[in-house]
């Protein structure tokens, strides 16, 4: 096949991370091509659906620091595009008062002076009706947290990228990558060349990295995205200021359970378990494990008495997990002009604008704006060596 184009940068994968990276590159006047294997928009990766939680409530300071700037970048994009992408709802964090995870989140919020409110057992139900706070659990609210309108985000950022002269080619699967000072990328439709390539292929990352002789310890899991029906319509509604929530751990599971107020589907509240069962991304729906739904049913019955304890709608999505659940934001260890953004471990959406900025910096050979040591590829190799 003949070469179809020469670019400064090719970004592979038009999920939230690839779209923001391409947009940042175009903002820096780089001739950029964004390649996507499916017709856009699609529901086969990790970025689809109407809503995601945005928050600063984290255990680690480095995520809180990144979110400081990230909130500003979300507002900038809203202004630039004239579109509403974020709605403030607050995020209620609940968990056993004495547990390490709950205490760490609470302390990190306090240490970083994030606007927050600690709820006591006495005033809890006055602020948060229709939720039973478990005996021994504490509760804090991250006030500026809220909901991002995910599908709208993708449409907006891809549109802004195109307005800046960026080119999107969807339904064009990358079949091969040939590293070198100029990287050659072959797709189902042609061959392209670029000074740098960014791989943001979500659950398919290792398939692409195989062409560059690298495999990361990534695990792809299917998430059952469950929607639960309100017994009295409106009781958990975003308009009535019901917040997003996270249960750091509980009787039902050591894993987070999280929820968003009814919003995208009136009368239905989205509640999921923050884990799932391993899957092949090309055969996602052959994974039919529902043990997460059993856990959620028990939790809903016990703590959310205003919801029917059977999911009314179940959709599917995928997480790409790293062993420590931190992202991979780095250059390929051998080919510095191949940049990797992967392993977002089910919490990467809110960081989209800042991840786009960081991956753009890496692909331009600039010093990244944040310390990327928690996100290096090398941490996995170091672990392997020390366990030998
Ligand atoms: C149910 C669920 C709830 C979540 N909730 C939250 C939340 O509340 N807050 C939060 O911050 N995050 C949340 N996340 C996580 C967040 O959505 C993900 O971290 C993020 O969407 C990952 O984006 P991505 O761009 O890396 O991957 P993807 O969206 O999967 O994008 C990768 C793209 O690459 C394309 N691709 C792959 N291979 C090729 C190829 N060979 N050629 C061309 N294209 C290719 C794929 O088709 C895909 O479009 C949630 C995720 C799920 C599943």
Question: Could you explain how this protein is built, in words?
Answer:
The protein is 27% helix and 30% strand. The chain is of the alpha+beta class and 388 residues long. Helix 1 runs parallel beside helix 5 (150-163) and helix 1 crosses helix 8 (352-363). Flavin-adenine dinucleotide binds next to helix 1, strand 3, strand 13 and strand 18. The site of flavin-adenine dinucleotide (FAD) has 37 residues, from helix 1, strand 3, strand 13 and strand 18.
Question: How does the SSE layout of this entry go?
Answer:
Layout: E1 3-12, H1 16-27, E2 32-35, E3 51-54, H2 61-81, E4 86-88, E5 91-96, H3 100-111, E6 116-119, H4 121-127, E7 137-142, E8 146-149, H5 150-163, E9 167-169, E10 174-178, E11 183-187, E12 191-199, H6 205-209, E13 219-230, E14 244-247, E15 257-260, E16 268-273, E17 277-278, H7 291-303, E18 307-321, E19 328-331, E20 338-342, H8 352-363, H9 378-387
Parallel strand pairs: 1-2, 1-12, 2-9, 5-14, 12-20
Antiparallel strand pairs: 3-8, 4-8, 5-7, 6-7, 10-11, 11-12, 13-16, 13-17, 13-18, 14-15, 15-16, 19-20
Helix pairs in contact: 1-5, 1-8
This protein binds flavin-adenine dinucleotide (FAD).
Mean pLDDT: 95
Tell me, what's the shape?
Answer: globular
The count of strands amounts to 20
**CATH H-level homologous superfamily name of the largest domain:** FAD/NAD(P)-binding domain
Q: Give a quick account of the main beta sheet: strands, pairing sense, barrel closure.
A: 9 strands, mixed
Subunit organisation of the chains: single chain
Write down the CATH class of the largest domain.
Alpha Beta
Provide the helix percentage: 25-40%
- Whole-number count of domains: 2
How far from one another are the termini? 45 Å
Given as residue ranges, the uncertain stretches (5+ residues, pLDDT < 50) are 384-388
**Which structural class do you get from the secondary structure elements?**
alpha+beta
Radius of gyration (CA) equals 21 Å
- The percent range for strand residues is 25-35%
Element-by-element helix/strand order:
EHEEHEEHEHEEHEEEEHEEEEEHEEEHH
Question: Any guess at the CATH architecture of the largest domain?
Answer: 3-Layer(bba) Sandwich
């Amino acid at each position: 096949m003949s070469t179809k184009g020469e670019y400064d940068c090719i970004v592979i994968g038009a999920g939230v991370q690839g779209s923001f990276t391409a947009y940042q590159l175009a903002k820096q006047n780089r001739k950029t091509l964004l390649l996507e294997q499916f017709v856009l928009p699609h529901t086969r990766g990790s970025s689809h659906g109407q809503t995601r939680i945005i928050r600063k409530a984290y255990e680690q300071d480095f995520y809180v620091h990144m979110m400081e700037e990230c909130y500003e970048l979300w507002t900038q994009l809203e202004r630039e595009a004239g579109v509403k992408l974020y709605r403030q709802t607050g995020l209620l964090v609940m968990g056993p008062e004495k547990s390490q995870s709950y205490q760490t989140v609470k302390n990190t919020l306090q240490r970083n002076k994030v606007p927050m409110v600690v709820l006591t057992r006495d005033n809890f139900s006055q602020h948060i009706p229709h939720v039973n706070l478990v005996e021994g659990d504490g509760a804090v609210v991250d006030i500026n947290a809220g909901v991002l309108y995910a599908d709208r985000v993708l449409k907006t950022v891809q549109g802004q990228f195109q307005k800046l002269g960026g080119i999107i080619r969807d339904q064009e699967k990358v079949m091969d990558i040939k590293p070198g000072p100029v990287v050659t990328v072959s797709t189902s439709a042609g061959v392209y060349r670029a000074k740098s390539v960014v791989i943001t292929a979500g659950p398919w990352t290792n398939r692409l990295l195989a062409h560059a002789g690298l495999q990361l310890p990534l695990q792809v899991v299917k998430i059952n995205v469950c929607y639960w029906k309100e017994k009295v319509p409106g009781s958990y509604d975003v308009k009535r200021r019901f917040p997003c929530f996270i249960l750091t751990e509980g009787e039902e599971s050591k894993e987070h359970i999280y929820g968003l107020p009814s919003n995208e589907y009136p009368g239905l509240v989205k509640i999921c378990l923050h884990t799932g069962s391993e899957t092949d991304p090309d055969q996602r729906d052959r994974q039919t494990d529902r043990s997460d739904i059993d856990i959620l049913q028990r939790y809903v019955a016990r703590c959310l008495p205003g919801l029917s304890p059977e999911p009314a709608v179940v959709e599917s999505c995928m997480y790409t997990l790293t062993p420590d659940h931190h992202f991979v934001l780095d250059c390929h260890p051998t080919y510095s002009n191949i940049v990797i953004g992967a392993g977002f471990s089910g919490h990467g959406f809110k960081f989209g604008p800042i991840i786009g900025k960081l991956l753009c910096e890496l692909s331009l050979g600039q010093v990244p704006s944040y310390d990327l040591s928690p996100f290096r590829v090398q941490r996995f190799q170091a672990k392997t060596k020390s366990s030998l």
